[in-house]
Specification:
Layout (H helix, E strand, L loop, with lengths): L2 E5 L5 H12 L4 E4 H4 L9 E9 L3 E2 L1 H10 L8 E7 L11 H12 L3 E3 L2 E2 L11 E2 L2 E2 L2 E3 L8 H16 L1
Parallel strand pairs: 1-2, 1-3, 3-5, 5-6, 5-10
Antiparallel strand pairs: 3-4, 7-9, 8-9
Length: 165
Amino acid sequence: MNTAIFYASSTGNTENIATAISKQLHGIKTYDISQDGIDEISNYEKLIFGISTWGEGELQDDWDDLWSDFCEIDFSNKTVALFGLGDQDSYADEFADAMGILHNQITESGGKVIGFTSVEGYDHEESKAQIDDQFVGLVIDEDNQDDLTDQRVEQWAQNIKSEIL
């Protein structure tokens, strides 16, 4: 299989979502970039990246540590899906911004991003992960809408399956 998930998780939430997505997509391999780094990205044509937003719209620490190396990756001829975690109540002005930062870097480097989702059902002010009325990937809010997580993961995985597997 030529698809893998790369993520980092400070609290375990992003890891849990990566695991749930992997299960939905027939057990594709997952890499925790805090332990595995990002070198394996070049071995895959189809990728899923998971990131949470910290502080005021910042990258999660492990992503931040590897960011300069990540920015050197050529995503031409790669298909990428994104999922991001955020807190729409406490951080309504930068909700899931880190996923938007990833999206911008990937598209600037030639990558094709799939798996956009509707902003309907979320209550936030602004997001770098939003283009018009869609997020650039799956957005999960474990702080305020954890009851919707399983449904959102399952639906998103089904929607991207034909393009990502």
